[in-house]
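Lab manual, section 2.4: Encoding a predicted structure.

Procedure: take the sequence of the chain (240 residues), apply the prediction step described in section 2.3, and record the output as structure tokens. A sample record is shown.
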Amino acid sequence: MTEKKTKTKEKKFIKVDDVDQKEPKKVTRTTKAERREKATGKRVAAVIFWLLGIACEIVAILLLCRKLYVTDDKLLMWVLIAFAADLVFIIIGSQFWKRANDVDPASEENKVKFWLWNQMGLIVACLAFLPVIIVLLLNKQLDGKTKKIATAAAVVGLLVAGLVSFDYDPISAEEREAAETTFEGEAIYWTQWGKKYHLYEDCQAFHGSENIFVGTIESAMDAGRTSLCAFCEKRLHDGN
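Recorded output:
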């Protein structure tokens, strides 16, 4: 019998910054003001998408209240289209907001403010679906079938938007500052789909990954890789 040879994927290291993998050197860190400026475009984009989502909700409310007229046989279809567009816009806006917070995170000094700032996507998701759910529940003019389907669709939209928009592990300004100080000038690694940053080019977490990005800790965090890989953390502490 002939043995099948398994082809190992050759790893390709893609440099994002001018860092030396063998001899790390000091790099100029961006200031808080520069980071804020960098994040502003993403925050503006987030707000624009959120406003588009809320506009879709308003269209749905106008349709349901018969202020914007369509024939009865097409009412449900247009309401569902408005809900779908609302959901898409809210999710896109929330992703922009999360990336902006990775670049320019809030301080953890005020816990309430920190939570509210990081969970703006969740708050907007509620604003984009709760009012229309209330309108649906209070509307006595809709036929039973349309009301049930539209209400179910709005509740699903709220749940999906909320779950996707929620930031489960937001980084604080203090955490980012500490990581940048600790790993300043070091070559940091991350993959296209992974959520962590890595310290070693031969980390076992890279198994199966073909493209590995190499850059500074700042670039890794800007890309949304804001927490250290557990394997790399253990290896660092063990001194290997």
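Check your result against the sample. The first strand starts at residue 12 and ends at 15.
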